[in-house]
Amino acid sequence: MKKIVASAKTIEDAVQNGLAQLQVAKDRVNITVLEQPSKGLFGLIGVKEAKVELELIPDPAGEAERFVLEVARTMGLTVSIKRQETREGLLLELSGGDDLGMMIGRRGQTLDALQYLTNIVANKYSDSHFRLVLDAENFRERRRKTLEELSDRLANRVIRSRKEVVLEPMSPQERKIIHSQLQSHPRVKTFSKGDEPHRRVVIAIRS
Length: 207
What we know:
Elements (H helix, E strand, L loop, with lengths): L2 E6 L2 H12 L6 E7 L14 E7 L3 H15 L4 E8 L2 E8 L4 H4 L4 H16 L7 E5 L2 H23 L3 E2 L5 H11 L5 E6 L6 E6 L2
Parallel strand pairs: 5-6
Antiparallel strand pairs: 1-3, 2-3, 4-5, 7-9, 8-9
Helix pairs in contact: 2-4, 5-6
């Protein structure tokens, strides 16, 4: 954790000097008074300034952003990140050039892996569970629509053939999209089988 020592004639001024150096608000630091100010002999000789230590309190989202930017830099990519609060957690939306597809990967597998690691990093600096969602060029929404359309097509195939369909292994988030899309379907049902990371959704005729 970053620490600095600042001094001034008063404790409050010393704290303000430290905050200015760190460029943060007072609620982002822990403050320890190292030395009280004193005026010295007759208020003239040996004046001693106040000295304080400011320890920066880590910001989970900030640490997560730094991690993602470092990963991108290692991959030779330049990206920008925009934060947005959502029901699923804090969304970090990545944007950049045409090469951003490298961070998404096949069917979002690289993005999912990076999201997993980013959550680990963020929670190292959080006292409570911190949930981050990582997205790039609106991939999550595009993937959701693709899976919903796939669900409907496969449901119709199951109805016609009267045979269940087993989908490819998916992440828990993607399986949830399939289940949600077909949960109210009058003629088919869904369930999952197998163990992670090879767990699959099955679409079958309702009995």
